[in-house]
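Researcher: Good morning. I'm working through a list of sequences from a screen, and I'd like to move beyond sequence-only analysis. For each chain I'm collecting a predicted structure so we can compare shapes side by side. This is the next one on the list. No need for commentary yet; just the structure.
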Amino acid sequence: MSGRRALFVLSSDYGEYVTANLFSRGQPFARHFAVPAALAGAIGAQTQEASVYSGVEELEAIVARQQPHVVVLASGYLFAVNGLIAADDLARFVARLRARDVAVATTDPWLRIWKLRPGARFTIHSVRLGAEDEARSQIMNQLSERLQRDFADVPHLFAVPLPAEAGRSHSFFNPRFAAPAAPAQREHDDWLFVLSREDLAYLEPQSFVRALLERIDEILARPRNRLTLIGPRALQASLGAHVANRPRLQLSSGLEFAQFDAAVRAASIVAYWNVLSASLLYCLYYGVPPVFFGRGHQARVCEGLFEHAAEHVYRGRAPRVLDLAAPIEPDAGALAQQFGLRSWLDFLRAEYARAPSPHDVIERLVAQGAR
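Model: Good morning. Structure tokens for this chain:
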């Protein structure tokens, strides 16, 4: 171990744990997670390396106990949005950390689009209005501008390749997290469908449920296939009796962090409705082919974000977005071959692997904080 200690302060966004886990697992520094109550149930067996907080005072106590060299806010851009920490309180917390010579960094779910594409803005769509909610859009854009100012001189961490920005943006790749496994002979092919509440809100309920049931029937018609659907309870209620007691079908409204990690690793195919879902990076590290049935809510509410992701996350090779209403190839291997998914993952991994290791990034952050 290097003797360094890193504290990851998580917002309510499940994906921010994914980024923190990718950064810290297997690295020669100690890690600890501070999680809000909304994520406390997902900690599971990791309770020894996590503490629950409900405000800045409890975070201060965790910092005092852990004595970290580096605090990573995951993400500083989400605490106010999640209703966890007001922007003023967060700014004062960061200032106090720096006064104690603790290096501070943040992740950014918007991938520095505001810096790299200055014309980008939020457009918050209202399902009820069937149009933009201009008041909410204004609030989000004002908050975004405030946070951009607050974090202008705070180093940013990214699990994807982004421009270095003179030491203010640090991409990383963790070769110790996992090496992709060679395709094995399997008794079953496990399909994993992952749909968030935010992405479900943008889908037309009746046509979506009808198409989803058709694809479930198609996949399970192949005896060697098993399917796990992780989605909001509202979706499970909509599926109702159509999926009750179906063999080889499992519904879940959420898994513990370690369970979800294991489910992705064991899958033959993972299906997403969001091309910016953080956990698709698990697919990259584990070599598990992902498919996409939608661009996702982030691309909907932020102009230019899909194109930004295509350039940086996907290195100019954006994924094909499939039509859920169209038949899908139920043979996982044939589907991966049909879309060239394994060679695409190999290309992306080679691109990502050029980034420095998390340990190197930690040392840079500590050195920056000392200046």
